[in-house]
Amino acid sequence: MHEYFDYTQAAEKAKISADDLATLRAHIEEIYPSQMLIEMHLYTICTEIGQGKLTLAEALQPPRNGPPDISTLRLGG
After folding, report:
1. CB 19 within 8 A of CB 51
2. How many Å apart are CA 66 and CA 28, to the nearest integer?
3. Contact 49, 15 (CB under 8 A)
4. Per-residue pLDDT reduced to its tens digit, 5-18
5. What is the pLDDT of residue 75?
6. pLDDT at 77
7. Rounded Cα–Cα distance for residues 77 and 71 (Å)
8. Maximum CA extent, the chain
9. Between vectors from CA 60 to CA 58 and to CA 63, what angle results, nearest 5°?
10. SS3 sequence, the chain?
């Protein structure tokens, strides 16, 4: 269930199965600590898969430079 971004609808449009979406969510949860970031990335990934810009296999690859360091993230400027 989503709270911030409706990634489930994006997944349906991209024809991502429930099992694949659960796998993708588990992968994203290992990288991002907040619910909002998890859902935002799931929405973006599902949308890009639906547009043919990304494959599920590519989305499940580990981050190239390791997990992002969100301790220095600044919002709004």
Report:
1. no
2. 13
3. no
4. 999 999 999 999 99
5. 47
6. 41
7. 15
8. 38
9. 90
10. CCCCCCHHHHHHHCCCCHHHHHHHHHHHHHHCCCHHHHHHHHHHHHHHHHCCCCCHHHHCCCCCCCCCCHHHCCCCC
Residue 44 burial class via C-beta count within 10 angstroms: exposed 0-12, middle 13-18, buried 19 and up:
middle
Q: Is the dihedral of CA 10, 14, 16, 22 positive or negative?
A: negative
Structure tokens at 16: 């991502």
Token pair recorded at residue 17: 């199965």
Q: What is the pLDDT of residues 30-53, one digit of tens each?
A: 888 899 999 999 999 999 999 999
Question: What six digits make up the tokens of 13?
Answer: 């449009």
pTM: 0.77
Residue count of the chain? 77
